[in-house]
Amino acid sequence: MTRHCPTRRTIGSVVLALTTVLAATSASATAVAADPLPGVTPRAETPVLHDDDAGGNADADDPAIWRDTADPARSLVIATAKEGGLRAYDLDARPVQSVAAPPADSPDDAPGRFNNVDLVRGLKLSSGSADLAVTSDRGHDRLRFYRIDRDRSGGPLTDVTDPAAPPVFSADQAEINEQHTAYGLATWQDKASGRSYALVSRRERTSVALLELLPAPGGKVTYRKLRTLDLPSSFRLPNGTSWSPCNEPGELPQVEGMVVDAANGTVYAGQEDVGIWRMRADLTGRPELVDKVREYGVPGVYDEETEECTPGADPGYGGKRITADVEGLTLVNEADGDGYLLASSQGDDTFAAYDRELSDHNEYEGGFRVTPAGGALDGSEECDGAAALNEPLGPKYPHGLLVVQDGHDAPGDGDRPATNFKFVDLGKVMKTLDD
To answer: At 233, phi and psi to the nearest 5?
Structure first.
């Protein structure tokens, strides 16, 4: 996910977000102090990743939870590490497998970089039905597919990407190297047709593409693009002026975090500096902005020399629940059709929960923080990606699991960038939101 933390968002965006938060009214500050969000503590964390040469340029980003239906206690968390590739962890947060990202096609080309990951259940391949981990390879502007076999010798993940799979957005290698490439990702399956799809956003652009996932010869997987939707990059404010988020010249407000509610064919998409959009997963119809970041409408001027944005006065048109960037989105489904949309509010290290039901207009239901459990097990800061599964996962997580990325693992290792993933008992989260 790289315009949000030191590896994902520009310095200017950071300064704008921080300055805006600090410039909030005293009344708002008093309200927050009087009603702080509750904390939930993690039960486990994955080993730290370091985004430097010594660490293989591995940077934790986005998780997905694969449930082993035969033995839920042997379920897996599959997560991206950007240039560090893909990781698989057991429910004790121990590494099970590390998959390298594909190398650069030539010394002048970008290397593979896995940004987001999601899952597809039971895709019919020429070699039989398979569960897949699907990841967006930002470096090559492609989707990559990994068959999941929990008992396979050498690890559960096997690359089944069709070598002929085309770029998602780019026309040629030169355009790929500009890195306006595949970024955010969400998969879904249409129950009526049985077809599987992926929604893919474009880095530093507002585009979201709909791809149909297809079997290819030899048990491989490919895709074809069906349509593309462009979200707005400029917004009309109530005072009659037009506003765009402050970014480096040439950058548009991108989308990363996305999740599909397959029960009603709805996708929620986080436009990082704008807010959360709700739209049809087939990308037809009119998108609706469900909630806005607090910084919505705040003007900013980008300084080429300092590479920073200088914010102007806050006109007061922003939301009250999420602070830019809005990042990881995930759904908590309940048996009665209720549940929550959870959103990472990266700018203030919190998570916001919205009612899943469309009839309730995705009403805000509360929020929480992932706080330290004590000792070396810290909480989550500047969270990029998140995944929730409200199903029993053996004795460790009988009420389900929430996995969140931690953008600043503590105690850390000097000045080295340190990230990982925290495992949280979803039952704790549900109890917190229900209280």
So the answer is: -115, -10
SS (H, E, C) 286-339: CCEEEEEECCCCCCEEEECCCCEEEECCCCCCCCCCECCCEEEEEEEECCCCCE
| Distance (Å, whole) CA 186 – CA 117 | 8
Instruction: Tell whether the torsion through CA atoms of 85, 88, 93 and 95 is positive or negative.
Output: negative
74-to-43, 120, 138, 159, 394 alpha-carbon distances in Å: 17, 18, 30, 21, 8
Angstrom distance (rounded) from CA 289 to CA 273: 13
Q: Looking at 72-204, which runs of residues are DSSP E strands? A: 76-80, 86-89, 95-99, 114-125, 128-137, 142-148, 157-159, 182-189, 196-202
Count of residues for the chain?
A: 435
Integer Cα distance of 242 and 224 in angstroms: 36
Contact 84, 58 (CB under 8 A): yes
Sign of CA dihedral 40, 59, 19, 208: negative
Phi, psi of 203 (to 5 degrees): -65, 130
Q: The tokens of 392 are what?
A: 């029993």
Question: With contact defined as beta carbons under 8 Å apart, do 291 and 364 qualify?
Answer: yes
Whether the Cβ atoms of residue 6 and residue 18 lie closer than 8 Å to each other:
no
CA distances from 348 to 63, 126, 323, 370, 418 (A): 20, 47, 6, 12, 19
Six-digit token string for 404: 């969140």
Q: Which residue has the tokens 């909030």?
A: 24
Residue in this structure with the two tokens 């070699």, named with its chain if needed: 127
| Amino acid residing at 157 | L
**Per residue of the chain (435 residues), what is the pLDDT tens digit?**
433 333 334 434 443 444 443 443 333 343 344 459 999 999 999 999 999 999 999 999 999 999 999 999 999 999 999 999 999 999 999 999 999 999 999 999 999 999 999 999 999 999 999 999 999 999 999 999 999 999 999 999 999 999 999 999 999 999 999 999 999 999 999 988 999 999 999 999 999 999 999 999 999 999 999 999 999 999 999 999 999 999 999 999 999 999 999 999 999 999 999 999 999 999 999 999 999 999 999 999 999 989 889 999 999 999 999 999 999 999 999 988 899 999 999 999 999 999 999 988 999 999 999 999 988 899 999 999 999 999 999 999 999 999 999 999 998 777 899 999 999 999 999 999 998
